[in-house]
Structure formats: C-alpha cells, structure tokens
Amino acid sequence: KANGQAGQNFEQRKWEDEVIHTALPHFGSLDKEAKSNQPKYDYILDEEIQFVQQLTIPGVNELLQYKEKSKINEHEDENKRKHRSLQESRKTLPIYRFREDLMNAIRDHQVLIIEGETGSGKTTQLTQYLYEEGYCEPDTENVEEEEEEEEEEEDYDDDDNIKLPNGKKKKEKKMMMIGCTQPRRVAAMSVAARVAEEMNVKLGREVGYAIRFEDCSSERTIIKYMTDGMLLREFLSEPDLASYSVLIVDEAHERTLHTDILFGLVKDIARFRPKLKLLISSATLDAEKFSQFFDDAPIFRIPGRRFPVDIYYTKAPEADYIDAAVVTVLQIHVTQPLGDVLVFLTGQEEIETANEMLLERTRRLGTKIKELIILPIYSTLPSDMQIRIFEPAPLGARKVILATNIAETSLTIDGIHYVIDPGFCKQKTYNARNGMEALTITPISKASANQRAGRAGRVAPGKCFRLYTSWAYQHELDDNSIPEIQRTNLGNVVLLLKSLGINDLVNFDYMDPPPMETLRLAFEQLYALGALNHKVELTKLGRRMAEFPLDPMLSKTILASETYKCSAEILTIVSMLSVNNSIFFRPKDKTLLADTARQGFFTPGGDHLTLLNVYNQWKDTNYSTQWCYENFIQFRSMNRARQVRDQLEALMERVEIEIQSNPADTIGIRKAICSGFFYHTAKFSKNGMYKTVRHQQSVLIHPNSCLFDQIPRYVIYFELVLTTKEYMRQVIEIENEWLRETAPHFYKTKKLDDDNKVKKMPKVLGKIKAELERNYS
Ligand code: CDP
Ligand code: MG
Question: Which parts of this chain are annotated as the region Disordered (predicted)?
Fold first, then answer.
C-alpha cells in the first residue's frame, strides 16, 4: 500500500527538483532552464566535478583483508558471543511471533501455503523451527516397511554404500530430512551458509546444500537447501522422496520451470505419503492461486514488517539506464543520509560495466565524498565474493550493491534504504516455431517493480528511484511475469518426466500448461535425438540421457562419444561449454595481449577443439593458477569446468561408458558433437552469412570464434546469441556427410545440397500434434 500511495503522489514529488537540485549546492548552481528538459543525471557532469583528488576510497579488498586479519585474533568467546547474538536476531524476525501458530497449522494440515514479505524469515527460519519441532526424527512407524524396500533394492542395486550386517539398526537411526528448494543457486548456497551459522554447525554437515554439479551435503544432513532442479532430479533416484519428512517449495512465486514441475510431482506424492508435510512459500500475491492448485490448502500469512517507500520516477525515459543508474547512485551518495543502495541490473556484463563506471567516478571525486563500497552480486560470482554483500558497511561508509534479479526476493540484504530500479531483467524467451531460445533484456512486471521497491523499506522508510516514467509503469508493464514453463524449451523436462514414468505429459497436473507448440517441439527434438521411439516411448538411449543433468543435446553428445571412442575429450568439451564464455580473460588495458594469447590456443576444426586444447594445456601444468594468469585464462572458470568434469565423469559409470581418450581423432570428436547438435547446423550462403539448415535463418560466426575468417561450408554451433546481429557462438566445422551418419532420424538425404533436406517427422508425431490440439482446445 505504501507503494501505491507514493506512486500516486509522484506528480508532486518532482524528483529532480526537490531531491537533487537543492541538495547539490557545492556542485555549483545549476542552470535550471537549460537543464529542465534533460534527464536528471546530467547534473553530475564530469566538468562540474573538477576537484579531482587522490583516490582515498579503500578498496574492498583491503577492507576485507583487514577484517580477515582481525578475525584470526578473535578467540572462542567471540564465537559464543556471536552465536548468542545470532540467536537473538532470529527472534527479531517477523516470522518469530507466529512460530507457534505456524507450527500448529503445519501439524494440522498436510499442505500449507505460506505467504510473507521478503525478509520475514521464511527461508532461514522455517527449516529450523521444523527441526526444533522434531520433524527430523526418524519415522519409527514406517521402519519395517522401509527395511523391506531396502532389501528389495539390494537385489539389484549393489553399487551403494557398504551394507552393515546390522543394516536395520542403521536404518532406524537415519534422520529424516527437511528439504527446501530455491530457484537460484546463489540463494541455495547463501541461505544454507546462513542457517549453518545460526545453528553453529559446519556447512555441509547437518545443514547442507545441493546445486547442479556441487553437492555440499552429507549423510548427516538434516536440513538441505537445493535448487528446484536438483530436487526434481532426486525423484529419479527416490521417486517418493522417502528421505524427506518436510518439503518446502520456496520462492514459489518465481514460477521457474522446475518449480512448476515440482508442484505437480509433490502434490502427487503427498497423496500417498500422508505424513509428508508440504509447504509452499511465496513472497506475495500468488497465494490464492497456489492454494487452488493444492486442493484449497490453507494460506498462512505472515504480516511483513515494512516501512513506507517513496517512489520516484524519471520525467522522461532514459536512453542509457546503466549510466542513469550510476549517476543516481552518486546523487544518492552525495545528497542522501547514509543507508545502503541496491541497484537492479540485468546481468554480469551490466554489473561489471556499472562497477567500473562507479569506480572511475568515485576516484575522480576523491575525498570530497564519503567512502562508497561497491559490491556486485550475480549467480556466477564465486561464492566467497557473494558472501561479502552481507557484511555491514563500515562506520560512515555506504554500500552499493549491484545485483541481478536475485536480490528481488531470493536474497535479503539488510540495511538497504535506497533502491534504483531501471525496470529491466534478463528473461529467457522461446520461439516454439523455430525452437530458438534466447536471453533477452525485457521490461519487468508491475509485481517485480513493487518487490524491488519493497527492498528499500525493510529497516526504515526508504526510497525507490525508478528509471522509467510513471506512465510507463502504468501502461507498459504487465501485471505479472509469464511463468517460465510458457517461455522455454521443454526438452530436458520432458525427458526427465518420461524417465519418471510419467507418460501422459499432456494431462500432467500443470499449474499453467505449457504452450502446445512447445511440447510438440520437445517431443520432436527428443525423437530426432533418438531418446524417444516412433511410439513416443523412452528408448534405452533416452533413459541413459536422462542420467545427465544437462540439455538433451549435450547428454546425447556424451553418449555418442562412446561410438567414437573419445569420451575423455567430449567430457572436457561439455564441461568447458557449461562454464560458457568466461574462460578467456580480457582486461581493458591489455586487450591486445589477451587477444593474442587467446588466438594462440586456436585449434583447427573449431572452438570446441580450442576449448579442449586450453583445458588439456592447463591440465598439463597440473592445473596451475600461474599458467592461467600468464595466458589470460580465468582460473575460477577453469576450476569450475574441472569440477563439472569430475561430476560428469562420475555419472559415466552409471551409463556404463568407459573413459577413452583419443585426442588426435578430431573427426571422431566432431562427429560426437554432431550427433547431439545436428539441429544446430548452418550452411554458408554468401557474404560471410550462414543459413541455419532447419529454419533458413541468417546467422553469422561470432567474431571471437577461431573460424571467424575461415568460412567453412558447413558448421555446427553451440548457441545463438543475439547482439547487434544473430551470432553463432562456439562453432565447429563439419562435413556434410557426417549429418546423415550421426542423425539418420533427422536428415533424409545423404548430402545437404538442396535447400530442403530435413526429414519430415514421422506420422506418430503428427498424431501427437492432433492429440495435443484436442487437449488444448
Ligand atoms: O525468506 P525470507 O525472505 O522471508 O527471509 P530470509 O531469507 O529467511 O531472511 C531473514 C533474515 O535473515 C534476513 O533479514 C537477514 O537478516 C538474514 N539473512 C542473512 O543475514 N544472510 C543470509 N544469507 C540470509 C538471511
Ligand atoms: Mg526467502
């Protein structure tokens, strides 16, 4: 409500006049007439800030080093004191007052929808309350039943842990888990870390987390945070999720694809596991919808602690919202009382740009301004850097956090008084007609805008600066975002559901069904990959593909490596592709050197082979940091690729593929890639342009590719990126003949000479289409 009122008052507020103008006296008087038509951020022009001084803002690094040092000197008492103060602060969270009512409600109902403002304590406290309430105690009544099950399993599942002769005892003692899903990796990790801290246990033991390619949990884990995608995969190994006594589907309002699929699955298991508790927790707004879906489950509302937030709009649309955001940060910094600033940007690149701009401008301002600590946060930021955003700003300093959407509801950062909202986020969009997936910068919804504004009012009255006009807010923003299931490729999920034995995907219990075209395309693609047969049943290949937490095209590539006896190489390539585009380091002041270093790795055949080359050279140095540094390679990314590779290698046993190395056979390696990525074939047409084989779309080889000036006739690309033009990123050269060999389901003729050579899908798929149409009408 506070938002609404502030919004209505907007016309009287005139952001630039009242707030900025009067508050910038020492920047010289501004010519009101001349400036009045310009966006407000022209006020801090470089010429106006000529008192350039020495850089006095201590770097965040020094600051943290200092903190690190002082920590070492703390003794145990400090630890205890800290724990006590953490326990005290738990009691100040809004959810605390409702603990008893909440626990009663959970006791009385199997499914409960919990709605509460971000920061009320849902994610960090619910799990602990439930644990303290005894929900992790072993389920003694069911022990016998479980034993039987275990014995059954023993017959054919002998790759598990060593069985104690006294397996029964062990089973009895096994604690139940409380699982809590998060749509975002960063949230899962940071929340788990926080809860471990509050419970004074080591992260990964009693409290753990699991995200793709990283499992930080153990036998002892009783509170487990994980991404929604991970829980989805757990259904594969434990279809009834018997290890869990409580499942919390958190951040339900985000409506990610995986969360939406989980809704259907957990609703189903709750029916035959009456003791399982199911909590659906969401920030705001959608509670009724969730309740309806879960057979009118009761809604528990936790009243938020929220201070009014004044909303300011710009008078005219901003041409460059990053620049506008940066200037607004500085304006706040020089004119507004202390309090941290949160800026919403769409991704890593924008965040890095804004970070540089801020550093540059604060440097120029020197000691004229107070200390400004700039902290980025995005999902691929290394976790030790992520933790930093939670550290309070030193006395007299101000933190500015440059965040992606992640700070909208998934993470609560205390001390934010000011929010800057450019009104955009990066969203996946999917064109079901041509199967093209793209990340595009899209305007946010009204619901998101209000969530963002709300971040400013958690600790005190706050201010939100929207870098768009009030008119745009009212007329251009949708009320709610479109759920991901309706704008993404479903190949992966269809494969997973099929392997869970869910065959009728048309009548699956969706909260909002996916578009028919998207489902059909997923079937078609899985058929072409050989994961489904002509009766649309899962094939053996499909079952093996489902073992990998990867896009079906990548899983297929891995499985095809068996045929070409190059699994070691393919694993490396797939791992390198999964850390995507962050391998090469290109500092602004050394672009020439960096480019030369990168070109030094170029390998005939294409970028996949180049990536393999980088990895193998790094491996030969025994994974040296120094080598990375010297060769302009990002060590962290390489390390991550290595981690991913280890995980994938472990999965190879499950699909019984031997690790074979055949580095010299670059044809075999490329054929394996071809087996997974034949959909992504493009043929040279003219003037450096390519045409995709499937949709005759004009595309170009990305300038960073090692094939950029070679112009091979046929290429396969890993992905398309749309910048100024549509580019193919990570490209290999292939031979025409390989397509027929590697994708017999897909390519009709031996050679791709004419324009129309893609096979028509078999009749069965036509039938699916008919069925889909019937069901959707
Ligand atoms: O889930 P919800 O948004 O309701 O709140 P939460 O994530 O449980 O956060 C509750 C409080 O825990 C926040 O206000 C923070 O003070 C604190 N917290 C933290 O300090 N560090 C984290 N990584 C997560 C939460
Ligand atoms: Mg939360």
Answer: 135-168
The token pair that represents 583 in the structure block: 């391998």
Instruction: Annotate 221-256 with b (16+ C-beta within 10 A) or e (fewer).
Output: bbbbbbbbbbbbbbbeeeeebbbbbbbbbbbbbbbb
Tokens 């910068």 correspond to 441
pLDDT score recorded for residue 29: 21
Q: By C-alpha distance, which of 421, 401, 471 is closest to 309?
A: 421
CA distances (Å), 750 to each of 386, 601, 758, in order?
Answer: 52, 34, 11
Q: Give the pLDDT confidence score for residue 770 in this predicted structure.
A: 64
How far apart are the C-alpha atoms of 701 and 62, rounded to whole Å?
42
Q: Which residues pair with 696 in a beta bridge?
A: none
Containing H/E element for 257?
helix 257-272
CA 196/CA 357 separation, integer angstroms? 36
The answer, yes or no, to whether any atom of ligand 1 lies below 6 A from the CB of 118, is: yes
What does the alpha-carbon distance between residue 579 and residue 639 come to, in Å, rounded to a whole number? Answer: 10
Decide: 124 in ligand 1 pocket, CB within 6 A: yes
Among all chains, which residue has been given the structure tokens 């009118």? 296
Q: Give the pLDDT score at 141.
A: 62
Ligand 1 atom index nearest CA of 387: 23
Q: If you write DSSP's letter for every residue of 204-216 in order, what string do you get?
A: TTTEEEEETTEEE
Q: In this predicted structure, what is the pLDDT of residue 759?
A: 55
- Please tell me the predicted confidence (pLDDT) of residue 520: 87
- Ligand 2 centre and the CA of 689: distance in Å? 47
- Residue 589 token pair: 């002041």
Q: Which residue has the tokens 């200037």?
A: 327
Question: Which residue puts its alpha carbon closest to atom 19 of ligand 1?
Answer: 194
Q: Is the CB of 190 under 6 A from ligand 1?
A: yes
| Kind and range of the H or E run holding 313 | strand 309-313
The closest residue, in CA terms, to atom 16 on ligand 1 is 414
Q: Indicate the helix (H) or strand (E) that contains 263.
A: helix 257-272
Q: How far is the CA of 98 from the centre of ligand 2 (A)?
A: 16
Q: Which residues contact 176 (CB under 8 A, 6 or more apart)?
A: 135, 136, 137, 138, 139, 222, 243, 244, 245, 246
Low-confidence ranges of the chain (pLDDT < 70): 1-76, 141-173, 285, 305, 433-435, 580-581, 748-777
Structure tokens at 8: 């209505």
127 ligand 1 Cβ < 6 A: no
Instruction: Count the alpha carbons within 13 Å of 762 in the hemisphere toward its beta carbon.
Output: 15
Q: How far apart are CA 49 and CA 360, in angstroms?
A: 13
| Ligand 1 within 6 A of CB of 121 | yes
Q: Which atom of ligand 1 is nearest to the CA of 116?
A: 4
| Token reading at 473 | 């807010």
Neighbours of ion ligand 2 (CB under 5 A): 123
Residue 528, Ramachandran bin (φ over 0: left; ψ between -120 and 50: alpha; else beta): alpha
Question: Can you give the pLDDT at residue 589?
Answer: 86
**Is the CB of residue 454 below 6 angstroms from any atom belonging to ligand 1?**
no
Residue 116 near ligand 1, beta carbon < 6 Å: yes
Residues contacting residue 428 through CB under 8 Å, at least 6 positions apart: 437, 438, 439, 484, 487, 488
Q: How far is the CA of 544 from the centre of ligand 2 (A)?
A: 35
- The shares of helix, strand and coil residues in the chain, as percent rounded to the nearest 5, are 50, 15, 35
Identify whether the C-beta of residue 304 lies closer than 8 Å to the C-beta of residue 116.
yes
Query: What sign has the CA pseudo-torsion 198, 201, 203, 205?
Result: negative
CB contact at 8 A, 280 and 111: yes
Residue 451 near ligand 1, beta carbon < 6 Å? no
Q: Which atom number of ligand 1 is nearest to the Cα of residue 302?
A: 4
Residue 158: predicted pLDDT: 41
pLDDT at residue 281, as a whole number: 95
Is the CB of 93 inside a 6 Å radius of any atom of ligand 1? yes
Q: What is the pTM of this model?
A: 0.78
pLDDT at 764: 56
